[in-house]
Amino acid sequence: MINSWNIGSVRGIKLRIHWTFLPLLLWIFASAVSSGTTPTQAISSILSVVAIFGCILLHELGHAFAAQQFGIGTRDITLLPIGGVAALERIPRDPLQELWIASAGPLVNVAIAMIIFAIQIIGGLGNSAANNFLSSLMVVNVALVLFNLVPAFPMDGGRILRSLLAFRIRYERATAIAARTGQLCAVGFGILGLSSGNLLMLPLALFVYVAAGAENRMVQSQHAANASRTDAEPLQSNSRGFRWAGENEFRNDGGVPASLSIQSVAAWLTNQRRDHCKIVESGRVIGEVTRSQLASAIYRGLGGGPVSLLLAA
Ligand SMILES: [Zn+2]
Question: What's the gap in Å between 118 CA and the centre of ligand 1?
Fold first, then answer.
């Protein structure tokens, strides 16, 4: 990805920083200087931003390490001005696993706040600059915990909400409720951002709104695809891969015939844990479709149509 830079890796997880960070740091520096502070103070405010994002990075590593316990890898962790994103290879369906992975991030910030508190008590730093710095870092970590516990699915609080619901009700229903709650929170973020002039809230609100809707559609369409598979034509496994009863065979190189239904291809991709595939007609690759394209087509009620429909659009 060209829009973020590699800054290292931990336990095989790539750490990246989004390019929008650079203007953010410049803006903080410029606004500090223009408000009459010395360059030294401006640099120290940049250092505190770096420390804050260090805490966000540790938060994301908390998620990633918790996921590793269940054999789920993390492709990378990207730091954005609105926070961090750990790209897990998959989201577990087991509510207990999702609960633990979602809670691990905020728990890291609880631990950091407690360690800072202990240092302040034992260190006896008094009213020094170091102590003020630690105090503000502790406040930031407490704020990170509270902010992440807002049930704004797919943020941590929303995932915790979905997992708690999924202990009692169907996963699809739990997701729908969590996504709707998340979108309500996103609208709240938007209003709060506009009324307080905190413009960084706006991209966050937009992200939560769109991502909650997308993940909900994904879960609902996977459910629909799985249901149609078990109701109608069962997948039969053979030594050469998967066969769709009554329809052409899926090719081993991941190509699927253009005449297959959107639902069938979605079910096959889910089954294969793939996120895209080639579409083949008369032995020729005529295009490619992604799982999210299939999911949104199913959501729009086009699941029964041929997958080639998506290429025409
Ligand atoms: Zn988190």
Answer: 24
